[in-house]
Each structure stands twice: as C-alpha cells, then as structure tokens.
Design brief:
Elements: H1 3-13, E1 25-29, E2 32-35, E3 40-43, H2 46-49, H3 58-70, H4 81-94, E4 98-102, H5 105-124, E5 130-134, H6 143-148, E6 165-168, H7 173-180, E7 185-190, E8 193-194, E9 200-201, H8 204-217, E10 220-224, H9 238-241, E11 248-251, E12 262-266, H10 268-271, H11 287-299, H12 302-320, E13 325-331, E14 334-339, H13 345-354, E15 357-358, E16 360-362, E17 365-368, H14 376-391
Parallel strand pairs: 3-15, 5-6, 5-7, 7-10, 10-11
Antiparallel strand pairs: 1-2, 2-3, 4-12, 8-9, 11-12, 13-14, 14-17, 16-17
Helix pairs in contact: 3-11, 4-11, 12-14, 13-14
The chain binds pyridoxal-5'-phosphate.
C-alpha cells in the first residue's frame, strides 16, 4: 500500500491527537527502518525509547513468537510462567520486592500513586494523600498522571482533576520541603532525568536531600523511570547512577522491547497494602509481552551496558563538536541538544528526516533516544547526517 493512501486513511479515521511526520514505516531491522517505497532511515528515536533492542531483535522475536504459539492471554485469574519470571528478574535487578504489571507508563504511575496513598491510608488514616511532583515533569495522560505532570499546558479543558497534587521547581530543595512538610503528603514523585520536559538531569545532591527528607517523614519516594529505566542511562536503572533506592520505581517504555507494558516495582513496605481487589488490569502481565520483556532484560548484561556507555560517550562528544550546538544534556543514551538562538530544533529534526535520520524533540531541544544496541559506526553515521542537516540550516 502506498504512502499517500496510508496517510490519507489515517487522517480520515484516527483522532487527530498526534502531529505526525509524513513517514510510513513498513518494516525494520536493528537501527534501520524501511518505508513502503524501500527508503531507509537510521532510527535514533527507538519509538520514543521503546525499541531498546532495535527492530526485530532475534532473541526478543523468538521469545515473543514462541510464547504467542503457546498461550497469548489467560487473564489474571490464572497463573502463567512469563509474568513471574519477569517480576523475579526485575526484583533481582532493582533490589525491590514486588511488581504490579500494567500496559503503559501512565498506568504504572497511576498504580504507584495508588500504592503510596494506600500505604498512607492504612498507616495514618485519611487526609495524608498529597503527592508532590516537579515542575516540567511528565508522568502520563490519564487524569491522575496528567494532574501529576507539572506542566500548566496540560491542565486545561479536561477538569475536574483529582485533588491533592502539588508542584515544586526541580532542584529547589527548600520549595519541596515547604510543600511536603505539612503532614498531609504521602509521596514525592520525580523523574531523575526529565524527558519530555527537555532532557534535564537532576543534581545528585538535590536528589539525596529529597530522599533523606522523605525517609525521615515516611513519605514514599516514587521514581518515574518510564523513560530512564531498563538500560537507557547506562545502568539498568537511572537510580543506580544516583546511588538511590526509592520505595517505588515505575518502568514502561524500554521494558517490552516494543510491546506495551508498564510495571510498578515496589519495596515490600510500599506494596504490602495492595491486597486482592485493590488494583488490577485485564492485560497486565500478559505472557507474550512478559516473555519479550524477559528477553530484553536478559540481553542487558555487563557487556551490553558497557556498549551503551561507550556509545553514549562517543555520541556526546560528536554532538558537542557539531556547528550551532550550545550544549548537550541528559544521561547516557537519553540526550538533549540545545542549539544557539535562532536554530530551531524542529527544523533540525525535519532536516535530519529528509536526510534519512529519525530524531525527536523535547521542548526547544533536539532529543536522541537511539536503540541501546547501536554501534560506534551508527554514532558516526548519525553525527555525519546531523552535521549536514545543521550546515543546511
Ligand atoms: C512516556 C512517559 C510516561 C507515559 O508513558 P505512556 O506509556 O505514554 O503512558 C510517563 N512518564 C515518563 C517519564 C515518560 O517518559
């Protein structure tokens, strides 16, 4: 089917909630996406941090197809093996104790908020339900996670919103302490690297002060690792880069290798109140998705993460050497590029696309989220295309 037909049909029948590029991807392998006319693109988006092993990774493909042939879904009324297998791996890799599976980042964060409120209600009774989040955060599109998202632009037209959320500027410990000191706060939720907010990493000192403050007041610390988690920053969790052990970590994007999954990974303490009937999700823990996610987690051994760190170092250096680049931000392979005034990231993105390189933007920055299986040769190719794109602007 040709490109125009696919695009026209989509325009007619799909709600217009996304601003899309006129690119129709038909198939992919590794870092290479191919459109219907055989044109190829080097993919430095990984479907917004999702295809952590690139397109059609053999181990992931085998796990998914084999499981689909055995049993594709049972509901959570019964047991299947892949779900527990994945949960054990996540507990081993994070040092946490219990997992709840859903289908998206928003659903994971929604579950984490419920977990924190339940813990607090069980221990302290009603009225200690406030969740403090950071300005410029992004936590999802459901009503509660939209409310948790500390960006004014999202807080119109869809109200009334759930109560008891407060926002404080990232990096300002005094503001956070002032907002959370009232005895009504059950959780602080934050991304260690704000992704949609512009790829901005928090300062370790600040993060540790927040963690100590929360621990002293029995306020649960929820770290939203939906984008930073599962190898993206060069460690399994971004928390490891910060030597941080939160009460709850949420995962999603990179975990399923391309299939929808979200996970609330919690300490025994934070999870204890979530008994039968307290939460659920029809598709949560789906065996096909979990089998694929096990393949993703298993791929991430020391050598794999070393490659992430090596390629990240090479990519950061290459980006800093490009014309019109004012700064590079982020952590590992979660990268923001700030340009000099007058150079628009959206224009650079479009210029890259015309030259066969897919990249993203976040706020006024260019954003790179390449698959974690990239090689130094891919870094060189992307940097060369970016250089040409920037020279053309
Ligand atoms: C993408 C993202 C979400 C939302 O994930 P969905 O799967 O789109 O619901 C939440 N938090 C962070 C940090 C994200 O990057």
């Amino acid at each position: 089917m040709n490109r125009e037909k696919v695009i026209d049909r989509d325009e007619q029948y799909i709600m217009h909630t996304y601003a899309r590029s006129p690119v129709v991807i038909e198939r992919g392998e590794g870092l290479v996406a191919r459109d219907a006319n055989g044109r190829t693109y080097l993919d430095f988006t990984s479907g917004i941090g999702v295809n952590s092993l690139g397109f059609a990774h053999p181990a992931w493909l085998k796990a998914v197809t084999e499981q689909a042939g055995l049993v594709q879904h049972t509901s959570n009324l019964y047991y299947t093996a892949p779900c527990g297998r994945l949960a054990r791996r996540l507990c081993q890799r994070t040092g946490l104790d219990r997992v709840f599976f859903g289908n998206s980042g928003a659903e994971a964060n929604e579950g984490a908020i419920k977990c924190a409120r339940k813990y607090s209600a069980d221990k302290y009774g009603e009225g200690r339900s406030k969740v403090v989040t950071l300005v410029n955060s992004f936590h999802g599109r459901t009503l509660a996670t939209l409310t948790a998202t500390g960006q004014e632009v999202f807080h119109h037209d869809f109200g009334p919103f759930p109560a008891d959320f407060a926002y404080v500027p990232a990096g300002d410990f005094d503001a956070l302490a002032a907002a959370a000191v009232d005895g009504r706060t059950c959780a602080v939720m934050m991304e260690l690297v704000q992704g949609e907010g512009g790829v901005v990493a928090l300062e370790p000192d600040y993060v540790h002060r927040v963690a100590d403050f929360c621990a002293a007041r029995d306020i649960l610390l929820i770290v939203d690792e939906v984008q930073t988690g599962v190898g993206r920053t060069g460690k399994f969790l971004a928390c490891e880069n910060y030597h941080l052990k939160p009460d709850i970590v949420t995962l999603a994007k990179g975990l399923g290798g391309g299939l929808p999954i979200g996970a609330v990974v919690a300490s025994e303490k934070a999870a204890a109140g979530m008994g039968p009937g307290s939460h659920g999700s029809t598709f949560g823990g789906n065996p096909v998705v979990c089998a694929g996610a096990c393949a993703v987690v298993d791929a991430m051994d020391e050598e794999f993460l070393q490659n992430v760190n090596d390629c990240a170092a090479a990519l950061w250096a290459a980006l800093r050497a490009l014309p019109h680049v004012a700064g590079v931000s982020g952590l590992g392979l979660m990268i923001g590029v700030q340009f000099e005034p007058g150079v628009s990231a959206a224009e650079v993105r479009a210029a890259c696309e015309r030259r066969g390189l897919l990249v993203l933007t976040a706020k006024d920055r260019l954003r790179l989220l390449p698959p974690l299986i990239l090689t130094p040769a891919d870094v060189e190719k992307a940097a060369a295309i970016l250089r040409k794109a920037l020279q053309s602007i």
